[in-house]
């Protein structure tokens, strides 16, 4: 049974400060569950919401999209999960559904059980990063490449093809590499800090190019590896203007690029496709993919075919999150996912 009170980290106003407050633990309604949050991973979007005033209009708000924990209470009509089940899920930026608190309300997509061979911290790396990579690769256009889904019958269907992943050491990039490997891509090229080369190759990359190399140098290296006609697919897991243009220019005449941020590509040519990836499980267009994802992804994790990101646990529970977000903003985190443990809050 959940307690009546909890600690929650609020963004108190647009462009405002973060502060921990004691609030009531919410009650799940019909079709909802209450989840005790053991791990909540941080994302760059969290600090961008505070700094740029984007995405959230109603304050105070609780941020945090990557959640792993236990089902504490089950609302009317919920099937497939029971109290005590270990689950991971995407949070939404409201006072009852954001991950930066000790208990959240959620609607689950069927049975979303965390395999017992991974920790809550590990599982908190999956909801946003892995789902976004999955949507970008397997959602039908214009939201993704529409490749044969590896969770059904798409294993090795992309044999003989090449993909470039810009930003392979980031949250989304690491999962794109793993899913591309399962899809059977023969050539998987990524850009990243070279210190991550061995790890990224263990995830599926066949070649790692220095992220600090010039666009001209990257293009020359990709051409050397794949031929002068360009690549069929580019997944831009960074999606700043410079990487968008680079990825687009690497494409073959009928190639496709997946972007995580708004399209800023210049000098477009007919034939090349641009996909805007929205890795939000609750979007109606993603519902079918989300149900399949949560039903089947656990077996791939349990078998070691999908590996979580490396994590770094932050100190002081919820109170440690603002400093963690500052580190993300200042590019002081590389190759690891920062994770808060709300139950360790004072």
Automatic annotation (TrEMBL):
It comes from the Eukaryota. Pfam families: ADH_N (PF08240), ADH_zinc_N (PF00107). Coiled coil: none annotated. Residues 13-340 form the Enoyl reductase (ER) domain. GO terms for molecular function: oxidoreductase activity, acting on NAD(P)H. InterPro entries: ADH-like_C, ADH-like_N, ER, GroES-like_sf, NAD(P)-bd_dom_sf, Trans-enoyl_RdTase-like. This is Enoyl reductase (ER) domain-containing protein. It comes from Amanita muscaria (strain Koide BX008).
